[in-house]
Amino acid sequence: MNTALSEVPDRSWNHSQDEILRSEPICVNVETKSASGNMTESEIQLGIWVSAQYLKLKELLTHNSKPLTLPWLPLLIVKGELWYLLLASHSNGITTLWSKHLIADSSTLTGMYTVISVLKLLFQWANTEYRSWFKDNAVMP
């Protein structure tokens, strides 16, 4: 993918120009807040990030003359010890954040194992389904 990256106009797979984020596609956005943090602010921040990510994906697909079929993207909010999963979709120029679901409370052993299990599933999805979609659609042949 590094060779293909040289063909991308801004030399980044992502909406960020931060050097550490340019060469590997972002697949899960995470927002962290203290236990007293504002959940609405977290959702707004994730909405901004994932909207920018979808715009970048659309740019890559258009650059490669691929159809604009964008995948669902998982999002995480960690508020203190509470972990939430949200899903984002993009259709007709609109990014939608679907309702958040509590994954677990990581202050308990069972909760921590649940968080680890979900992170493993997201890692597996990122390395199989999302990576495959990204290579087939966003990376230039």
From TrEMBL:
Q: Which Pfam families match?
A: PDDEXK_12
The segment(s) forming the PD-(D/E)XK nuclease-like domain are 5-131
Give the top-rank taxon of the lineage listed in the UniProt record for this protein.
Eukaryota
Q: Please state what the protein is called.
A: PD-(D/E)XK nuclease-like domain-containing protein
What organism is recorded for this protein?
A: Aureobasidium pullulans (Black yeast)
